[in-house]
Write a structure and sequence with these properties.
By secondary structure, the protein is mainly α. The chain has two domains: 1-134 and 187-209, Alkaline Phosphatase, subunit A (3-Layer(aba) Sandwich), CATH 3.40.720.10; 136-184, no CATH class. It contains six helices and four strands; from the N terminus they run ααβββαβααα. It has a two-stranded antiparallel sheet with strand order 1-4. Strands 2-3 form a two-stranded antiparallel ribbon. Strand 2 and strand 3 form a beta hairpin. Helix 2 (56-83) packs across helix 6. The chain is globular and about 55 Å long. The structure holds zinc ion. Zinc ion binds at residues 27, 97-98.
Length: 209
């Protein structure tokens, strides 16, 4: 997914660049198709898109393998951005599209109407990372991590990251707390990097099934 981006950036060395990466993530029910074989660390894993053919543990293992792969992928994105840290103010904003039921109260998958949906489906994972030149108020942002946030924040935050002025942008929904002079945030604060590098060895081959 990151192939060719270096050339694109080299060809657009000035100005702002927005890169949108849309991965399949953990989208079910075929969790086993969301990760390459080398990432099947939790076993036995469900290898069917008919979840009723698998045990709870097999379903969870397949889901966790896909999470592991997304973690690894995000590390690749962050490493990629860090390579361009000298030249750009780099930042990453990752968000899932929904949470997922893993058998709690007999429910699986996602997509129940808001009024009926359990917390697991409404609790959406997201992650922000900033390069060393992108100065944010780290303490203020860490406080945000425990606040209830939603997809409503997303577009206003992205516009804010790009310093876009627009009447449709609500600064109150922008999650980024800027502060001049603030030091860098290392992504080792966010992700178990060493573990992920270990998991990523040997290099993945064969692509996604
Ligand atoms: Zn989805």
């Amino acid at each position: 997914m990151l192939q060719g981006l270096d050339q694109y950036i080299a060809a657009h060395a000035t100005g702002d660049i927005v890169i949108v990466l849309h991965q399949m993530g953990n989208h079910g029910p075929a969790y086993f198709k969301r990760y390459p074989e080398a990432f099947e660390r939790f076993t036995p894993a469900c290898h069917s898109n008919q979840l009723e053919d698998c045990s709870d543990m097999e379903i969870r293992n397949a889901y966790d393998n896909a999470i592991l792969y997304t973690d690894w992928f995000l590390v690749q994105v962050i490493d990629f951005l860090q390579q361009h840290d000298q030249q750009f103010e780099t930042a990453m904003y990752y968000t899932a599209d929904h949470g997922e039921s893993m058998g709690e109260s007999g429910l699986y998958l996602h997509g129940l109407p808001w009024l009926l949906a359990p917390e697991a489906q409404k609790h959406v994972a997201s992650l922000m990372w900033f390069g060393r030149n992108y100065r944010v108020d780290r303490a203020a942002m860490q406080q945000l991590a425990s606040q209830p946030l939603s997809h409503d924040n997303y577009s206003h935050t992205v516009l804010g990251l790009l310093e876009v002025s627009s009447q449709i942008r609500d600064p109150g929904l922008d999650l980024v707390r800027h502060q001049a002079g603030q030091g860098a945030i290392s992504h080792s604060n966010f992700l178990p990097r060493q573990l992920l590098q270990e998991v990523a060895r040997p290099p993945v081959s064969g692509g996604i099934r």
